[in-house]
Amino acid sequence: MIYFDNSATTKIDPSVLATYDKVATEIWGNPSSLHKMGDRAHQLLEASRKQIADLLGVKQHEIFFTSGGTESNNTAIKGTAFQKREFGKHIITSSVEHASVANAFTSLQNLGYRVTRLPVDKDGRVNVNDLRNAIDSDTTLVSIMGVNNEIGTIQPIEEISDLLSNYPTIQFHVDNVQALGKNIWDKVFTPRVDLTSLSAHKFHAPRGIGVLYKKEGKMLTPLHDGGGQEKGLRSGTENLPAIAGMAKAIRLLLENEPEKAAKEEAIKEKIIDYLQDKPGIKIFSPANAVFAPHILCFSLEGIRGETLVHTLEDQDIYVSTTSACASKTADEASTLVAMRVDDKIATSAIRLSFDETNTLAEADQFIEVFDKIYHHFAKINHLGEN
Amino acid sequence: MIKYTEVMIRYGELSTKGKNRKDFIGRLAGNVTKVLRDFPEIEIHPRHDRMHIVLNGAPFEQIDKRLKKVFGIQTYSPAIKVPRTLKDIEETSLALMQETFKDGMTFKINTKRADHRFEYDTNQLNNLVGDYLYDHMDNLKAEMKHPDLVLRIEVRSDAIYISNQMLHGIGGMPVGTAGKAVMMLSGGIDSPVASYLAMKRGVEIEMVHFFSPPYTTEKALAKAKELTGILANYCGKINFIAVPFAEIQETIKEKIPEGYLMTVQRRFMLQLADRIRAKRGGLAIFNGESVGQVASQTLQSMVAINDVTTTPVIRPVATMDKTEIIDRAEKIGTFDLSIQPFEDCCTIFAPPRPKTKPKLDKARAYEDRLDAEGMIQRAMDSIEVTPIYPNQKFLDDKAQEDKDLL
User: Which stretches make up the Aminotransferase class V domain (chain A) (predicted)?
Assistant: First the structure.
């Protein structure tokens, strides 16, 4: 089995699961309880928070636990929009965001907010000048992802940060669900970033847990009201087993980060070397500094992405199409469509996403299997015949 | 890295003579033994002029940390024992100097011969070793009056001892030389500092701590014990006496007018401390009161409370400002633990408006309403004594388990 779909989710690490299990069965008090079982749980909760803060180089009280990337994104975006509605109702994002960002903006649009969705270039990158032109006195929020989940583009967060340093009242959110542990963190998490989202199941921790980083002093209107957990920002009994598991997973993820990222990049390069110059194949995520090391998106002309996914699945190789909705309604939510890639090409794209557990041997195996598939379809579609 | 083989300890307050001196040295040896008890390989030889510790392989860096906190040590020097040959003296001297010498420093050699049969006399040795060092090191500069480094070479009949560091101890008197007393330890910032100051003057203290379950938590008790563990670094061991106080507090709450709740509670605490002192052969009571800091610590309150005993009540921090006390607590290492917010028995049942100027006759009259003797006896019957050793942990902080999990 070859699993090249790590941007969808990752396999839980056994030692992370062991932590989850131990906490769930032994430290199961409610962190808010006054008795010693509560105390014990509270201590572990704060130790987890501190570990994550230290690993990310931020303050302990800037780390908030949520149910995952979707909730972190919604809290950051709607929380900012609601909090700052008296100061302005213009909010800005890109046209290549994950659905949890894009649709949060759509909801706000329906509530009467003015939304600007910035266009992208052929690499899927926003242009800082477009952002500069879009900002006006009503702008309260800019939300741009760190690493695109479909093709792996690294957005120019550093340049955007420079621009936004002139607009201190605009809250800057970066969806970094795809970006942690890929040796590019400094590029996507600058000191100007006010809010950022992480999702634990993208790095071998359980589902249903994530982080929202909120810079000291920044205000958000909570979306979940209740018992006042997480300093009132996110009520609800803390998911301590998952939180502890996530804290451990982040520690493991960041150990030897450069080596791991280099390994992923080597796999990506090897497959690109093979795909390069094959008639009918178009690569959207080349191996260069504008793209993350772990995502490779390409299309095979004339074959729908879905078909390719199932063909590879038959050989026990697991990959993704880029965006499920693109094949149905090619009008939004697809990075490739936003890049103005021809509709036919966009629907024939697949995404390979690697992590540090993948090997070069798997890349070789993939190439061997894919080569047969390629020749089969190339023949049918007369690729490279003129 | 040089491996030291011995430590020479020089005593403080050498004015003490005769039997007192013997007691001083005996106590100090006992206290040093206690703080080094987890290094069984160490030998301790107390002598009339200094104490000699043979490390037998124990690491000096760790011994050093412990000795820094023992009262009665003026200065001490780690030394290396070498055979009685010039070659050994020269080589070890060079190694020591190379480790401690920094450019621009001055030095001198100070040879002492306890054994005059040695083949070189003092001056010869000074010159020979000095020449050897000059031959092997650059930028050395001798200075007789105020050198930065003194290389001490001591010739004894069994061997030669070489050292070049003189480290400062904390001085004071060995704990125990001034007799025994009880210390009223609450768990706040002040009483640990008062404990330290009592021990500094040689007083052996036993902690008296009042606890009132279920009004106070187990954590408050554990915190007081852990504070005692920090203070035990300065003497090796401290007995901790826990006194149950809930019955007395409840009775007082029920029967005494609000304005005098605090005064009468304090009178009971002092009586209990005094009973414990008498039972355990103490001579005085120490506490952490600071004049005027809170309602129970005004001079008027002290009059109304101190009334219950003629035993000396000594208040080492009486005239210190809070900031000075905090400063001390940070140096002693008790501050961070002291400020942990667990309710202690001084804060529960604290009336909203305690009298800052209670009247002695009223305090006495109110107290007469109670069965004081019965309550005191019941409390005395339930006291618990726990010996506490340096850095013993009682607050189950689970930090290690957290670390393993994460």
Answer: 2-366
What is the distance in angstroms between the Cα of A36 and the nearest Cα belonging to chain B?
Answer: 9
Relative to beta strand B149-155, strand B51-54 is unpaired
- Chain centroid to Cα B240, Å, comes to 15
Q: Compute the average pLDDT of residues A321-344.
A: 69
Tokens 């930065």 locate to B148
Q: Is the pLDDT of residue A281 over 70?
A: yes
Q: Which of A36, A40, A247 is the closest to B406 by Cβ?
A: A247
Long-range residue pairs from A268-271, CB within 8 A, at least 24 positions apart, any chain: A268/A293, A268/A294, A268/A295, A268/A296, A268/A352, A268/A354, A270/A360, A270/A363, A270/A364, A270/A367, A271/A296, A271/A352, A271/A363, A271/A366, A271/A367
Range with top average pLDDT, B24-33, B341-350, B393-402: B24-33
Out of A36, A40, A251, the one facing B406 most closely (by C-beta) is A251
Cβ-contact B390, B32 below 8 angstroms: no
State yes or no: pLDDT of A146 exceeds 60: yes
Selected residue of A25, A27, A52, A54 to mutate for chain B interface (largest B Cβ count, 10 A): A27
Give the mean pLDDT of chain B.
Answer: 90
- What is the average pLDDT across A70-96? 97
Q: For residue B381, what pLDDT is reported?
A: 96
In three-state form (DSSP H/G/I as H, E/B as E, the rest C), the secondary structure along B260-320 is HHHHHHHHHHHHHHHHHHHHCCCCEEECCCCCCCCHHHCHHHHHHHHCCCCCCEECCCCCC
The reply to whether A247 touches chain B by the CB within 8 Å rule is yes
Which pLDDT band holds residue B13 (cuts at 50, 70, 90)? low
How much is the pLDDT for A113? 97
Q: Dihedral of the CA atoms B21, B23, B24, B28 (nearest 10)?
A: 140
Contacts of A258 (CB under 8 A, 6+ apart): A183
Q: What is the CATH number of domain B180-399?
A: 3.40.50.620
Which CATH architecture group holds A2-8+257-380?
A: Alpha-Beta Complex (3.90)
Residue B213 has pLDDT above 90, yes or no: no
* A43 interfaces chain B, CB cutoff of 8 Å: yes
**Residues of chain B in Cβ contact (below 8 Å) with chain A:** 218, 397-399, 402-403, 405-406
Alpha helices in A92-173 (DSSP H): 99-110, 128-134, 157-164
Going by C-beta distance under 8 Å and a sequence separation of 6 or more, which residues neighbour residue B268? B245, B248, B252, B372, B375, B376
- Separation of alpha carbons B231 and B189, rounded Å: 13
Domain boundaries, chain B: 6-170, 180-399
Closest CA to A118 of A339, A310, A326, A267: A339
For residue A36, list chain B residues with Cβ-Cβ distance below 8 A.
218
- The average confidence (pLDDT) of chain A is 94
Of B227, B362, B251, B235, which Cα lies nearest the Cα of B305?
B362
Active site residue A325: yes
Give the model's pLDDT for residue A332: 41
DSSP B53-112: EE-TT--HHHHHHHHTT-TTEEEEEEEEEE-S-HHHHHHHHHHHHHHH--TT--EEEEEE
Contact B406 A244 (CB under 8 A): yes
Residue A329 has pLDDT above 60, yes or no: no
CA dist., res. B180 & res. A261, Å (int): 66
- The residue ranges of every structural domain in chain A are 2-8+257-380, 14-254
Chain B nearest C-alpha distance from A9 (Å) = 21
- Selecting among A275, A287, A290, A325, the annotated active-site residue is A325
Tell me if the domain spanning A14-254 has CATH number 3.40.50.1370: no
Query: What pLDDT sits at residue B103?
Result: 85
What is the interface pTM, i.e. ipTM, of the complex? 0.79
Q: In terms of CATH architecture, what is B6-170?
A: 2-Layer Sandwich (3.30)
